[in-house]
Write a structure and sequence with these properties.
Distance between the termini: 57 Å
Radius of gyration: 24 Å
Shape: elongated
Largest sheet: 5 strands, mixed
Length: 286
């Protein structure tokens, strides 16, 4: 009961029902196996080794399997999880994070047991201590930086801004510079309405027809333009096809976004420019 309470109370509080995250995990992986990008099968092996900082990461991975017969109840689920995501085409960094605590805990136990009987490391205490100094220096430095940073900063701040606007109805996501799917964190806008997407796969005629089909009071009244690529041309085209825009806010990516983009350029490092739609006074004639 206690375990159920602590693992499901957040789902119940946030989504209104239990096992929401488990359900979303299954549905998401079924629907998005190739939505993003394919990485090689060994991608997560390199990722775990890098996240845990070499060479200490190699010690922990070695220690994880040191007493494998004794800890099968932990090792088997971790390996199954790891194998599934290594096989699954869609490989994103966040997918493998749930197994890291188990690798760290069991790896530390197994490595320490090996270390107690290792003549090699007993004769090289200075080297061993220097490796741990390097490990903690890197972790503390990055920990301080990332403690005050968060992912998709520009998107979050944009939606927070919209949630603070008393006249906010809905938003158009302008990303005509790309055909990649864009998701906004609606939670921060205090509204769960689906955003209207305007990208390379959607024509202005489609957006215009959508606007005409909506009551003037229910039309999107804000626009978020993602990234600065050809931004002037994109805004000019929108204004010539839909209506005038008034720039009201601009948000840049954070340190964490820039770092993740540097590690893997596939991760977007985007800016967000927020505009207010200035419909003509006779909005019904749009």
């Amino acid at each position: 009961f206690i375990s159920f309470f602590f693992t499901q109370i957040t789902d119940l509080f946030t989504w209104g029902y239990v096992f929401a995250e488990v359900r979303e995990y299954i549905e998401y992986n079924l629907a998005n196996s190739v939505t993003y990008f394919n990485a090689p099968w060994y991608n997560y092996i390199l990722m775990v080794a890098g996240f845990l900082v070499p060479p200490i990461s190699f010690f922990l991975i070695f220690g994880f399997f040191q007493d494998w017969k004794k800890h099968l109840v932990i090792i088997i689920p971790v390996l199954l999880f790891f194998v599934f995501h290594s096989w699954h085409p869609n490989k994103q960094e966040r997918f493998i994070l749930p197994v890291l605590p188990f690798i760290i805990i069991l790896g530390t136990i197994g490595w320490q047991r090996f270390l107690d009987n290792s003549e090699f490391w007993k004769k090289r205490q200075g080297l061993y201590k220097s490796l741990w100094v390097f490990f903690w220096t890197v972790n503390l430095a990055l920990g301080i930086i990332f403690t005050f940073s968060y992912h998709k900063k520009a998107r979050i701040q944009s939606m927070e801004f919209l949630g603070q606007q008393p006249d906010y109805v809905n938003v158009i996501v302008e990303s005509t510079h790309t055909d990649k799917a864009i998701l906004l964190p609606r939670f921060y806008s205090k509204s769960w309405k689906s955003e209207v997407v305007l990208d390379q796969a959607v024509s202005y005629e489609t957006i215009s027809e959508f606007m005409k089909s909506r009551h003037p009071d229910s039309r999107p009244n804000y626009l978020i333009a993602l990234e600065n690529k050809n931004i002037a041309e994109r805004i000019a085209k929108f204004e010539s096809n839909i209506c005038e825009l008034e720039r009201v806010a601009y948000f840049e990516p954070g340190i964490y976004d820039s770092f993740i983009h540097w590690l893997n350029p596939v991760n977007r490092n985007e800016t967000c420019t927020v505009y207010k739609l200035k419909y003509p006074s006779n909005a019904k004639s749009l």
